[in-house]
Amino acid sequence: MSHHDLTQFRHTGTLYLSAPEAAELVRRHGLERCIATVASHIREDFLRWIDFDKTARVAAHSRDGVIELMPVADQHRYSFKYVNGHPGNTRFGLSTVMAFGVLADVDTGAPLLLSELTLTTAIRTAAMSALAAQVLARPDSRVMALIGNGAQSEFQAIAFQHLLGITELRLYDVDPAATAKLVANLQDRGLTLTICRSTAEAVRGADIVTTVTADKACATIVTPDMIEPGMHLNAVGGDCPGKTELHGDILDQAKVFVEYEPQSRIEGEIQHKAADFAVTEFWQVLHGERAGRDDAAQVTVFDSVGFALEDFSALRFMYDTANALGLGERITLIPQLADPKNLFGSLRSQTVAHTRLELETVLT
Amino acid sequence: MSHHDLTQFRHTGTLYLSAPEAAELVRRHGLERCIATVASHIREDFLRWIDFDKTARVAAHSRDGVIELMPVADQHRYSFKYVNGHPGNTRFGLSTVMAFGVLADVDTGAPLLLSELTLTTAIRTAAMSALAAQVLARPDSRVMALIGNGAQSEFQAIAFQHLLGITELRLYDVDPAATAKLVANLQDRGLTLTICRSTAEAVRGADIVTTVTADKACATIVTPDMIEPGMHLNAVGGDCPGKTELHGDILDQAKVFVEYEPQSRIEGEIQHKAADFAVTEFWQVLHGERAGRDDAAQVTVFDSVGFALEDFSALRFMYDTANALGLGERITLIPQLADPKNLFGSLRSQTVAHTRLELETVLT
C-alpha cells in the first residue's frame, strides 16, 4: 500500500465509517454527486476488468433468506462485502438488505476501511444501473417505469434523472404505501411522477423499465406482451437462485447483458436458460470489444445481480471521501503490537483498564 | 434469533469487540480457561458436523501473501472470518496473521458481533490442536517439540500443558530471538523449556511434534529420519497451496487426520498427495464413526489448516463472554431506520451533526 496508508494504519488502525457517518458523508458530498462519482469509479474499474481476481459470491441460503460474501481484488487493493437478503425482515423492523464491507491492502492484508454498505449498496446499484443504461438504452430515453418502490427505488430514480436525463417516472408497487413513500421523498426534484395501478400500466410507453422488487421467488413481474420495441430493461431485483422478475420469453427476444457471466448464470434472470444462452459481459461493451445495442428497435436487458467489483469501486470512493471530509473514526480491529511476533505479550498490558481509569479520572 | 438478541440488535446495533477489549476479556476470563472453553465449544460443534453448511475458504493470493474469507453456518447462526497470511509483514511492524470476524443471525442476516480475531485465532487454533491431540496422541505424552516460536507458539504451549499434561517443551526456531521471546513469556508457568539448535534435536524423544512456522513455501521442516514410533504430529503452519512443513514420506507412513477434507486437499500437507490418499476427518473420530490412533506405535498426523467452524465456535464464545462481562461497545454498522423501506429518508436526518454539536456544547 502507499506509505501514507501504511503509516496511518500502523498508528491509528482501521478507518470505521458507521451508518450515520456514511449518511453524513452523502449529505455533505451530495447524493447526486455521490452516485455520479461512484458510476465513474465503476466505469474506471470495469475498464480494467482483467486486472481483477474475480469470483462468484459465496452464498449461504436459509429458509428466510441468504447471506453472501463478495470478495474481489486487484494487485493493490482487496475488498469484500457482507450482504443479506431477507424479504421478511421488514416485519421485524429490519431492512431487507443490510450490508457492510472492508477495503484492505493486498501487500500486507491490513484492513484500511470498515464501512457500512447498506446505504452505499443502494448508491452503487443505482450507479451501476445508470452506467449500463447510458451505454445500452436509447439516448432519447426520457420515461422510466419503476416497478418496486422499496428501499432502493429513490436511488434508481435519482441516478436515472441525473445520469440519463429521465424526466418522468411511472410507478408501481404491490404495496401502495411504498409508492406513496417514494412520491413523498421525490416530490420536489423536478420529476413527473405517475402512480400506476399495475406493472402493465407503468411499463406502457416507457423507454426504460427498472424492476427492483424483493420477493424471493421466481416472480413473473414483466411479461412479453408488455414489451415495446427499443425498450431497455434494467432488471435489478432478480439476484439469486430462485429469484427472477422477467418472463423467460423476454430474454429470447432481447439482447442480454450481464456483469460477470459465471455469477449471473447462477443468480440472474438467465438462470433458467441453457448454459450456452448468449450473453454479453458489460465490460466488453465499455471496452469496445463487443457491440451494445444494435439498433433503436432492439430490446436490451441489463440482467444485473450486483457484482463485487461495484462494491470495490464504492468502497474506494467512501475511503477517499471520508478521509477528505474528515469523517469516520479510527478503530483497533487488529492488535497494535510493539513486537508483532509477541502476540502473547499483548495479554500482559492493561491498556483498556488504564484507558478507562484515565477516562474516569477526567470525568470525575 | 432469540428475542433478546433481536431486541438488542434493533435498539443498540452490533456488539463490537476491539483487539484491546478482546485482550481484556482474555485477561479477565483467564487464558487457560478461554482455551479450554473454546476447545469445548469446538468439540460440541464438531459433534454436530452435519448441521453445518460448509465450504472451503475463499482465498485471494498475491505475491506476498493471501487474504481469505471463511464462512460457515448452521440453521441459527452464521459466521465468517477475514484472515490474511503475509510472512513478510513483520518487516513493516505488522503481524503475519491478522483477523477479524462476524457472528450473524441466520433468520434475519443481522450482524450480532464484530470481533477482532487475531488473538482469538491464536486461542482457537491452540484449542483445536489440543482437542485433536487429546483424541489422537498417546495418553502418556509429556514432551512436545515446538518448531516455530512466533506469535502462535505460546498459545500452543499453554493449550498442550493444560489440556494434555505436557510438562516439557523442546524449542526450535530459525530466529533465536523468537525462541528467547517464548522462553521469557513462559518461564514462570511450570514447564521445562529446552532450547534446541535444530529441528532434529528438538524432535528427538518428543511424544508430540507441533510445527507452527510461517514461511509461504513448501518447506521440509520435518523429515522421515526424525520420526519415532508413536509420535503425534500437530502440523499447524502448512495451511495454503504451496505452504507445507512435512516431508511427503512421513504422511505415507502415518495415519492422517484432517478437519474438512475438501479444503485440506487444497491447503494441507496432503496437497502433494493423490486425490485418493486416505485421510480421516477428525469429526468422524469424535463422533465414533472412525477409529483414531490404532496402536501406541502408530504415527498420527493432524494435518491442520484451520476450518471456519473453529472460528464459529470461538465467535460464539467471545459473544457470550463479552456479554457476560459487559465488555465491548455497540456500533451502528447497519442503519437503524424508523421505516426499513425508507432508506432514502435516512439521508434527511442530521443525527451525526446534532450529536457532534451536542458534544461540542458539552465540551466547551
UniProtKB/TrEMBL annotation, chains A, B:
It holds the Pfam family OCD_Mu_crystall. SUPFAM superfamilies: NAD(P)-binding Rossmann-fold domains. Signal peptide: none annotated. NCBIfam families: PRK07589.1 (NF005762). This is Ornithine cyclodeaminase. It comes from Hydrogenophaga bisanensis.
